[in-house]
Predict the 3D structure of the following.
Amino acid sequence: MSAKQQIERLRRELHEANRAYYVDARPSMTDREFDEKLARLAELEAAHPELDDPASPTRRVGGEPIEGFETVAHSLPMLSIDNTYNEAEVRAWAERVLKALSKDAPNATPKPGPKAKRAKNAQAESLFGDNDGHAPDDAPGVAFVCDPKIDGVALSLRYEQGALVRVLTRGDGVRGDDVTENARTIRAVPLRLEGDPPRVLEIRGEAFIPNAEFERINREREADDLEPFMNPRNACAGTLKQLDPRKVAPRRLGFVAHGLGAVEPADAFVRYSQVLETLPRFGAPVGGSWSLCSSVEEVIAYIERFDRARAELPFMVDGVVVRVDDFAQQRTLGYTSKSPRWCIAYKYPAERKTTKLLRVDFQVGKTGKITPRAVMEPVLIAGTTVRHASLHNFGLIAERDIRTGDTVIVEKAGEIIPQVIGPVLEERPKSARKIKPPESCPICEGPVEIELETGRETARRCVNPECPAQIREKLIWFAGRAQMDIDGLGEKTIDQIREESDIPLGHFADVFRLQNHRDALLALDRMGEKKVDNLLEGVQQAKSRGLARVLGALGVRHVGTATAKLLARKYRDIDHLMQASEPELRPKALTAAERKAHNIDEHALETGLGRETAPIFHAYLHSPAAQRTFKELRSVGVDLTSRDYIGDGERAAAPDSPFAGKKVVLTGTLESFERESLKELLESLGAKVTGSVSAKTDLVIAGESAGSKLDKARALGIEVWDEARLLAGLPQGARP
Ligand SMILES: [Zn+2]
């Protein structure tokens, strides 16, 4: 296959995968496969700039950081929709609509034609059963469309000749921010429409963050010691306003269309339901659960049914938008000064309950951050029993005047994280007491540092580096599954060793010295021989996880799991990382002049660190504390070389890697590698490592005592490498 054919094929496959995922809601490829194909495509495109295409899926990874957002006028205003929280108002609105239409043009308002039928997708069918879409006799031929109201950020996507040319936020409705570069990274936003779209088509809709992705982002933020987002909408708005589009791409935003702006020719669509039926054919996703209703009773029934169904959806739906289907009727109804008369949003009330605030706990995190947490009388909210709620920080407690003993209003914000909204002042008992922020660390009594933003307290930290609470949290993190993955060293065991024995466990290196304390461990309550040996075996194995895991496990500020991995791709071991200059640690945040001054290649590997964070990490690396940590870890046998190393120099050669695009199967035991790290290494060199041998396998790497996979490979005539051949085949920098 020529490069051109390969490029076209990959673009087509990736495009179809996006479509299957976002438009048809039928994923056809795993995220991993997608990423691999994308990486392969990027390599081919880099080698063939003449085959460039602005609509290529690689263009979604995000361009250069921008200075700010330009505001641009909307071609048609993006009006907000009137909200209501009760059904009677929906009925009253529908009555006004019917009255205005029958009075204004009794003969010009057609009944919904035979084509006006409800959504034909499986989700809608299963949620709402059948609906024949007939118009009842009492209505003057007005059909309504009910659409789930997703809690996200409204965008207007402008397509000219099918190509995406500009994306604006709603802004003030008249002018919005140009977020084109960021929106291009959203895989649900087509870069080019399929089929035969109108020559100008502005698709308006909602960008949003699915719930699972929201939780992932918040876990990552907490690991990096950043304030978690309050709800998916905040997370989405924050993401779209990132100045660096590359930070937008990894957050998997969704998008669904829910309206149109300018369209040329203007008569391309006559009904909203027609828009919803047509957009998926252009490759643009619409919400799956819309429904065409022929009476206000059907609308109310939809709202009630959907309230039960929405909890099951993978994203936040906070209401239902009801609108008149027919565009001619919409024009007749027109607008008030702020909003269309042909449309109303019914919002489900956020579930709030009141309960009693019993006390406030102070938790000290691994970076010393002291977080207040409400302990309340248990209360059932949105289907779960809630005992604890976030109070975020002491600034917020003071601002909302929350006191112990108060009856407080608790809400499940974004229906995900419960939080205390505020006190019910009328019910405040005399005994209610103000919550005093701790003047010193509640655990070690060490001094605290207060962080302020515009005069309001946003965080309070224990600054004692030896704070036992921080050490405890750090050790739990260090031994955790995604870090050093030490079997048998969970939270309980860490507490037990620290509280019930004399075994030192205050430094990371102490974890590995546990091997010297077998007898003392055996003396602990509930620690049998089997349990202790399992723990010590886990400790032994953790020594060889490599640099990325160690860096990520230390819990250094601004170096989370992802950044640690990127650093380990760039530096072959801790010594090389220590030698890196501060600018070298943030290649993507360098100006051209800085790059030149420090002689840093423009293709230097990314690290995940930026202008603010790189100096902090650099200072940490060169602090006596860090020097001691690494020296001690090395002395107890922890491997500080990288398993992920690619290196700046080797990257250009990656397309020539003997493994690029190959399907590889590993079998048997290898001297120089652990299975998992070899897998990661080969994948970083472009291989696809699979579990079983088939006719599609390109290469089998067989170590000692390889079994049936090797036999099968031989039977199929597949190339087989032993360990020596593998070592010879690996690029210089990747050899162990
Ligand atoms: Zn402390």
